């Protein structure tokens, strides 16, 4: 059963990625990106990383893709222009991605990740929360700070453009 | 799994009853009679409407973007309905027991924006696109106060599992409800309810579909069954948020009647069937309040909508989150 779901999700991800690369319609590409990201979230669930899956759906599929699609629509459709992009350099692109894929596959296969502790997902969130506030406190606070700076910067830029 | 199937059947029945209730509530508030012709007091009106709707042709205009146009209603409904997977029905029947239950619910429900955007864009119609844009801006903005007000409950109860939150309110009826045990949550509930109205695109936040200015917003171009799925999702969202509100603040499936001395009212009115009854009854009361507000309040302007979310609800809910954290700390120490 898990195997079938695994194959199904993999096909979904590959389908999404192919549409992103091959489609000429940038909005379709955005939808395909959402499909891919939800597929990846499904993959996380299969690997018992439940919290990561939920965060993936919330931030990437629910946030980033929607902002992306929103941006595309606001800039193109309202001006009445056709939303068409072109994919160029197909052969070189294909070769480069195959090389990168093989390189990563080789590295991952040859790396010894250790025996790897298999966590039961019963107190995952608690563990992650405690780790954030003790072991990785500096990183956690830095991320919060950077996000705040980005937010303030974005608000400032938006205000500037509306003044003109 | 069983709870999921239960809610599917309940939702379909609920929509038929809710449309009738909505029209009767509207009629009562506006001093009219409402539907009276089909059946006694017009109770069969929704069924007649439903049959009419199912027979309609599934029209898609020539200029629509075919595939997204056809699939958009399905995405909206599946996103909303996926939220039901973690809801418990009664003490013995919990939803999916994943650890991040409530978090998953909020995350997955927010995906309906994608379907709405798809519908508005694929319709190839100015009004649909404006409706979709308004809807997305609104839903994305109101998710923040919604999430923060839910978080204050999570801080106090210390769990994301809705069944555990229900069990924490078990014991003695009304006095054990979260909102009575921790009166601070009244403010959180008000914010939760307002944001919930906005999330389900209900009046006074129905700007995305405001029929007087946008002809119906993102579902202007839809007809027949696909339009029906949009309506189903809207009512589904209302019910989902009402059940969630009932679980988080009003004791879930626990009976409201307290034990008074030897009179064990709470024990008498608890049980599997009665538990289900209490949960749904509480949710339906909240649904009634939503309908009542719809026919009482006028629609907000776009700028009022945004300033309500960003200037009032978000800061207040952040403050409430902080106060709830202090309250929890005080309770623990």
Notes on the structure:
- The complex is a heterodimer of chains A (164) and B (333).
- Chain A has 164 residues and is mainly α.
- Chain A contains 6 helices and no strands.
- Chain A has helices spanning 2-22, 26-46, 50-76, 90-110, 124-133, 137-163.
- Chain A is globular, with a radius of gyration of 20 Å.
- The mean pLDDT of chain A is 82.
- Chain B contains 14 helices and no strands.
- Chain B has helices at residues 2-29, 45-55, 66-82, 101-109, 112-122, 126-157, 162-168, 178-181, 185-199, 211-214, 224-249, 265-268, 272-294, 302-332.
- Chain B has one domain.
- Chain B is globular, with a radius of gyration of 20 Å.
- At the A-B interface, helix 2 and helix 3 of A face helix 4, helix 5 and helix 6 of B.
List keywords for this structure.
heterodimer; A: 164 residues; mainly alpha; Four Helix Bundle (Hemerythrin (Met), subunit A); 2 domains; 6 helices; 77% helix; 0% strand; globular; B: mainly alpha
Per CATH, the architecture of the largest domain in chain A is Up-down Bundle
How many independent structural domains of chain A? 2
Number of domains of chain B: 1
- Which band does the percent of strand residues of chain B land in? under 5%
Instruction: Give the oligomeric state of the chains in this entry, treating copies of one chain as homo and distinct chains as hetero.
Output: heterodimer
Report low-confidence residues of chain B grouped into runs of 5 or more.
none
Give the distance, in angstroms, between the N- and C-terminal Cα atoms of chain A: 59 Å
Share in helix of chain B: 55-70%
Overall pLDDT confidence of chain A: 82
Helix-strand string of chain B = HHHHHHHHHHHHHH
Classified in CATH, the superfamily of the largest domain in chain A is NADH-ubiquinone/plastoquinone oxidoreductase chain 6, subunit NuoJ
Structural class of chain A: mainly alpha
> Radius of gyration of chain A over alpha carbons?
20 Å
**Kindly, what is the distance between the CA atoms of the first and last residues of chain B, rounded to a whole number of angstroms?**
40 Å
* Mean pLDDT level of chain B: 84
Inertia-based shape of chain B: globular
Q: Count the helices of chain B. How many?
A: 14
Share of β-strand residues of chain A: under 5%
Shape of chain A: globular
Task: Kindly report the greatest chain-chain contact and the residue count on each side.
Answer: A-B, 28 and 22 residues
């Amino acid at each position: 059963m898990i195997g079938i779901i695994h194959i199904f999700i993999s096909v979904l991800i590959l389908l999404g990625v192919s549409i992103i690369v091959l489609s000429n319609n940038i909005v379709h590409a955005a939808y395909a990106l959402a499909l891919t990201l939800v597929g990846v979230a499904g993959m996380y669930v299969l690997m018992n990383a439940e919290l990561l899956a939920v965060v993936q759906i919330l931030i990437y599929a629910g946030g980033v893709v929607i902002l992306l699609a929103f941006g595309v629509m606001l800039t193109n459709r309202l001006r009445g222009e056709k939303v068409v992009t072109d994919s160029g350099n197909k052969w070189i692109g294909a070769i480069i991605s195959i090389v990168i894929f093989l390189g990563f596959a080789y590295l991952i296969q040859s790396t010894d990740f250790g025996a790897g502790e298999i966590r039961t997902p019963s107190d995952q969130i608690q563990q992650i929360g405690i780790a954030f506030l003790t072991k990785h406190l500096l990183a956690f606070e830095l991320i919060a700070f950077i996000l705040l700076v980005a937010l303030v910067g974005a608000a400032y830029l938006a205000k500037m453009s509306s003044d003109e | 799994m069983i709870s999921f199937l239960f809610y599917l059947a309940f939702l379909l029945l609920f929509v038929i009853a809710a449309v009738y209730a909505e029209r009767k509530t509207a009629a009562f508030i506006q001093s009219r009679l409402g539907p009276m012709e089909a059946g006694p007091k017009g109770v069969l009106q929704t069924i007649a409407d439903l049959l009419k709707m199912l027979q309609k042709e599934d029209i898609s205009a020539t200029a629509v973007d075919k595939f997204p146009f056809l699939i958009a209603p399905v995405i909206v409904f599946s996103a909303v309905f996926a939220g039901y997977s973690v809801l418990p029905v009664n003490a013995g029947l919990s939803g999916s027991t994943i650890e991040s239950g409530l978090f998953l619910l909020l995350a997955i429900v927010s995906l309906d924006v994608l379907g709405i955007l798809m519908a508005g864009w694929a319709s190839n119609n100015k009004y649909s696109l404006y409706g979709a844009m308004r809807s997305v801006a609104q839903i994305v903005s109101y998710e923040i106060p919604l999430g923060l007000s839910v978080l204050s409950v999570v801080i106090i109860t210390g769990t994301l599992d809705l069944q555990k939150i229900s069990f924490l309110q078990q014991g003695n009826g009304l006095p054990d409800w979260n909102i009575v045990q921790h009166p601070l949550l009244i403010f959180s509930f008000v914010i939760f309810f307002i944001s919930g109205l906005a999330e389900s695109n209900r009046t006074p936040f129905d700007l995305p579909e405001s029929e007087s200015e946008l002809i119906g917003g993102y579902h202007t171009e839809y007809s027949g069954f696909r339009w029906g799925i949009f309506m189903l999702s809207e009512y589904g969202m209302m019910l989902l948020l009402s059940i969630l509100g009932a679980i988080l603040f009003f004791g879930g499936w626990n009976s409201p009647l307290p034990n008074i001395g030897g009179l064990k009212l709470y024990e008498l009115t608890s049980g599997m069937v009665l538990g289900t009854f209490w949960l749904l009854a509480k949710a339906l009361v909240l649904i009634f309040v939503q309908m009542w507000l719809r026919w009482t309040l006028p629609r907000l302007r776009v700028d009022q909508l945004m300033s309500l979310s960003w200037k009032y609800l978000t800061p207040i809910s952040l403050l409430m989150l902080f106060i709830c954290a202090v309250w929890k700390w005080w309770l623990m120490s």
